[in-house]
């Protein structure tokens, strides 16, 4: 079978070259090319998420609705909102033509080549929604300043940055998840907002929330923007709100959409009195502050400082060894832990920190609206702030900020610079997800491919403006190379591997946390100092 | 369009596709007793590292030629020896005499696939990149496009990184030869082509054009002047490169003859088990499974590279 895929990929590449001269088939070539690459990645390593989704196929297919959120035969219980459960239900009706055995709940860890083929193809196929969303986003980009060369057009660069995004490729098509089509819905709703089709944008976002509730991170951006720039139909010349332009019809229509979507999603469970159970599955706060591998956020830096201080304290005999909690945050288990020196962090503390972090951007969106681009900037900041301060954040959540930011990166040099720093460090922080040896060349090659392309194309696009990086940023990004060599090649050969196995993970998340925090600060600065839309030239 | 970033992107894409293909299965996987070309290459490593050179091409109790006997020129044997040295350091069970027959494991597959990729990276890919860069009177975009086309050619990727062979070495050397003679580095070009020929005798297909082109160059320069000098230098280069590769096999006449017999097994008959599609398709003769070979023999896979 792979014989045919490869033959097609070769001929497609040649076809792509033939059409790259100026027709509009370059987009199809890019989309087809990456799809064929995804097909080649079918036999790669997959994580436990593969069994998670197989289990959900089984649950939704074999059991009635009333048991979906109660079923606990497998440890991978259903913890996504109802629309995703319905999505798995629809998939299961295709799966039954592949292999009926995978749809049996008690077939834990059921695996064979047919199951693998079906699951992988389901991810590849649903990515078509992502491809469509990218096409729509390209229409929202201002390409007037672009040169005649196709490869220097912002639309082309944006398409490559999104379609061939490294993070999405390895998380979806190797690790195994369905972020492609979900990101597609988000990008599509952003595109609709840009195109002033606010109702569609709101509808798509409401649907998205009921597919994966992690997108609630960016809900404040939608809420405030729609209220400020859609429900209030006009602004005063200085940018502040004109209170008498409030449109009740618009508010009601938005509210109706959100209500109807939520009713469709949660209604059946409300009728069965299962809402508390559903919510307990969706928001399991019993998990620890950090995932087994720390996402490169503020808490990673906090933990590192705590660890360093406790080691120093023990050495200088300032701390009593008996009083230190036995379980360590670095032992790799997902439980609740306490900090040693610095104050322990509770879920509510993280919620408050997150709210404080997103407030300035949300205020900016209200008091100094910058149009759809301001909305996008606020969305990215909400996603990034939630990543920085959230409870039990997964490193994959960085994609929530990286993908929308691609749209900003092809329009302004300052945004391109921040995007490159965020993307490179964010993508590098995903490396520990793929820890098997056969996948090592793939992750390094794909990372180099994406990084070299993104940096060189954006540098070419903005070559008439100031350089994208200063010397400090250049050194930091170049430092990722030696870090990878140390963690992946040198460290396993040292004697520390057995005694301190967590050191590579600690170094990776700590180093990347610095870059992510820096990008967050720069993005905030650009939002707070940007001019309001009334004072900028009309696009 | 910047040249070097785009070239880097093309090369990285080519390497990614190659490695992604190598994660799939190889020829003869899980099919005892003979397996396929993958086992043949592993067996050659076993033979070359365990036996003395004079036994490599001879049938003996230690070296059963019916089981994937060496039938490529000495340079392939030396390459197998080099890989075997590394394999022995990592895990001697991979190349242990007799006991490693049919050895299959994920770690071993990783090692074998890596050897193919390393050979590709060191010989074939630089030749392609340099060739495309040296093309005259075309834009950078077309050069990069050419490189992409050549590097993504499915036939070579499938055979080398999927089925399992080392065609990229001989083809790479042949391309270095083309580069050499095109840039007027005739001696280096002919040396490279001789290396290609000494890696796989199939390169004989390309030898006539090389011969005629270089001879034509000598005639052009005038056989009474510089042309003669060039001709003599070329003859010297060819003889020296062949001597270098075949020197250990010149110790006895029987050694040299045996190697030639293994390289050109004329007693085997017109068709191999899965011979060239063009030849079998155009001829009415039925395909014969390993016929004409004394005592039968292992079924060989298609020996024609792109």
From TrEMBL, chain B:
- Family assignment from sequence similarity: Belongs to the ALG6/ALG8 glucosyltransferase family.
Membrane topology type, per the record? Multi-pass membrane protein
Q: Is-annotated flag, keyword Protease?
A: no
Q: Which UniProt keywords apply?
A: Endoplasmic reticulum, Glycosyltransferase, Membrane, Signal, Transferase, Transmembrane, Transmembrane helix
Please report a single Pfam family linked to this protein: Alg6_Alg8
The metabolic or biological pathway listed in the UniProt record of this protein is: Protein modification; protein glycosylation
Q: Name one GO cellular component term.
A: endoplasmic reticulum membrane
Extract the GO molecular function terms from the UniProt entry. dolichyl pyrophosphate Man9GlcNAc2 alpha-1,3-glucosyltransferase activity
Query: What class does this enzyme belong to in the EC scheme?
Result: transferase
Q: Which reaction does it catalyse?
A: an alpha-D-Man-(1->2)-alpha-D-Man-(1->2)-alpha-D-Man-(1->3)-[alpha-D-Man-(1->2)-alpha-D-Man-(1->3)-[alpha-D-Man-(1->2)-alpha-D-Man-(1->6)]-alpha-D-Man-(1->6)]-beta-D-Man-(1->4)-beta-D-GlcNAc-(1->4)-alpha-D-GlcNAc-diphospho-di-trans,poly-cis-dolichol + a di-trans,poly-cis-dolichyl beta-D-glucosyl phosphate = an alpha-D-Glc-(1->3)-alpha-D-Man-(1->2)-alpha-D-Man-(1->2)-alpha-D-Man-(1->3)-[alpha-D-Man-(1->2)-alpha-D-Man-(1->3)-[alpha-D-Man-(1->2)-alpha-D-Man-(1->6)]-alpha-D-Man-(1->6)]-beta-D-Man-(1->4)-beta-D-GlcNAc-(1->4)-alpha-D-GlcNAc-diphospho-di-trans,poly-cis-dolichol + a di-trans,poly-cis-dolichyl phosphate + H(+)
Is Cell membrane one of the keywords?
A: no
Subcellular location, record wording = Endoplasmic reticulum membrane
Q: Where would one find coiled-coil regions in this protein?
A: none
Q: What is this protein called?
A: Alpha-1,3-glucosyltransferase
Which parts of this chain are annotated as the region Disordered?
Answer: 282-306
């Amino acid at each position: 079978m792979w014989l045919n895929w490869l033959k097609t990929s070769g001929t497609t590449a040649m076809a792509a070259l033939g059409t790259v001269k100026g027709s509009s088939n370059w987009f199809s070539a890019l989309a087809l090319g990456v799809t064929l690459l995804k097909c080649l990645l079918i036999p790669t390593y997959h994580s436990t998420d593969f069994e998670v989704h197989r289990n959900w196929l089984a649950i939704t297919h074999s059991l009635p609705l009333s048991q979906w959120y109660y079923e606990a035969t497998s440890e991978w219980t259903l913890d996504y909102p109802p629309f995703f459960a319905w999505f798995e239900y629809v998939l299961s009706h295709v799966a039954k033509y592949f292999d009926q055995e995978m749809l049996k709940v008690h077939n834990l860890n059921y695996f064979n080549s047919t199951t693998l083929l079906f699951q992988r193809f389901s991810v590849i196929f649903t990515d078509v929604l992502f491809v469509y969303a990218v096409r729509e986003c390209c229409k929202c980009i201002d390409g007037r300043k672009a040169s005649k060369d196709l490869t220097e057009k912002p639309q082309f660069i944006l398409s490559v940055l999104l379609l061939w995004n490294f993070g999405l490729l390895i998380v979806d098509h190797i690790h195994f998840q369905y972020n492609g089509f979900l990101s597609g819905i988000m990008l599509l709703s952003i595109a609709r907002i840009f195109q002033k089709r606010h109702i569609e944008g709101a509808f798509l976002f409401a649907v998205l929330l009921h597919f994966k509730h992690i997108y609630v991170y960016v809900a404040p951006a939608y809420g405030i923007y729609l209220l400020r720039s859609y429900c209030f139909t006009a602004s005063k010349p200085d940018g502040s709100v004109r209170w008498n332009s409030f449109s009740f019809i618009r508010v009601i229509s938005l509210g109706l959409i959100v209500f109807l979507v939520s009713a469709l999603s949660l209604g059946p469970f409300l009728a069965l009195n299962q809402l508390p159970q559903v919510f307990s599955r969706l928001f399991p706060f019993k998990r620890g502050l950090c995932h087994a591998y720390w996402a490169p956020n503020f808490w990673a830096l906090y933990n590192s400082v705590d660890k360093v201080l406790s080691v120093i304290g023990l050495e200088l005999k300032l701390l009593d060894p008996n009083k230190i909690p036995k379980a360590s945050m670095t032992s790799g288990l997902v439980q609740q832990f306490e900090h040693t020196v610095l104050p322990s962090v509770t879920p509510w503390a993280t919620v408050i920190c997150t709210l404080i972090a997103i407030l300035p951007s949300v205020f900016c969106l209200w008091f100094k609206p910058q149009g759809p681009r301001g909305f996008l900037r606020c969305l990215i900041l909400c996603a990034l702030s939630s990543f920085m301060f959230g409870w039990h954040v997964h490193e994959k959540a960085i994609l929530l900020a990286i993908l929308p930011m691609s749209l900003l990166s092809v329009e302004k040099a300052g945004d391109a610079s921040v995007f490159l720093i965020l993307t490179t460090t964010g993508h590098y922080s995903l490396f520990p997800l793929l820890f098997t040896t056969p996948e090592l060349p793939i992750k390094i090659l794909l990372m180099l491919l994406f990084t070299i392309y993104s940096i060189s194309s954006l540098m070419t696009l903005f070559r008439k403006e100031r350089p994208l990086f200063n010397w400090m940023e250049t050194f930091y990004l170049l430092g990722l190379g030696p870090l990878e060599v140390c963690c992946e090649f040198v460290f396993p050969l040292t004697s520390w591997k057995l005694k301190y196995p967590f050191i590579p993970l600690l170094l990776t998340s700590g180093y990347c946390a610095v870059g992510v925090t820096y990008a967050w600060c720069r993005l905030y600065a650009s939002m707070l100092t940007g001019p309001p839309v009334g004072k900028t030239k009309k696009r | 369009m910047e040249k070097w970033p785009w070239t880097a992107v093309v090369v990285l894409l080519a390497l990614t596709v190659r490695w992604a293909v190598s994660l799939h299965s190889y020829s003869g996987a899980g099919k005892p007793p003979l397996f396929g070309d993958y086992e043949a290459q592993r067996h050659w490593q076993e033979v070359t590292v365990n036996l003395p050179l004079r036994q490599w091409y001879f049938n003996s109790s230690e070296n059963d030629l019916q089981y994937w006997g060496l039938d490529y020129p000495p340079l392939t044997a030396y390459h197998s020896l080099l890989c075997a040295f590394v394999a022995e350091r990592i895990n001697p069970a991979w190349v242990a005499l007799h006991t490693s027959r049919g050895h299959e494991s994920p770690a071993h597959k990783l090692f074998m696939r890596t050897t193919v990729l390393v050979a590709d990276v060191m010989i074939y890919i630089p030749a392609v990149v340099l060739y495309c860069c040296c093309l005259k009177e075309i834009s950078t975009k077309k050069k990069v496009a050419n490189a992409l086309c050549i590097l993504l050619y499915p036939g070579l990727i499938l055979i080398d990184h999927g089925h399992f062979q080392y065609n990229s070495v001989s083809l790479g050397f042949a391309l270095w030869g083309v580069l050499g003679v095109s840039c007027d580095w005739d001696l280096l070009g002919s040396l490279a082509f001789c290396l290609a020929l000494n890696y796989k005798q199939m390169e004989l297909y390309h030898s006539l054009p090389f011969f005629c082109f270089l001879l034509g160059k000598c005639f052009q320069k005038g056989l009474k002047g510089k042309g003669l000098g060039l001709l003599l230098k070329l003859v010297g280069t060819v003889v020296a490169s062949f001597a270098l590769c075949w020197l250990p096999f010149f110790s006895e006449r029987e050694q040299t003859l045996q190697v030639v017999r293994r390289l050109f097994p004329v007693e085997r008959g017109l068709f191999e088990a899965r011979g060239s599609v063009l030849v079998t398709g155009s001829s009415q003769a039925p395909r014969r499974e390993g016929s004409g070979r004394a005592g039968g023999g292992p079924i060989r896979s298609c020996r024609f590279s792109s």
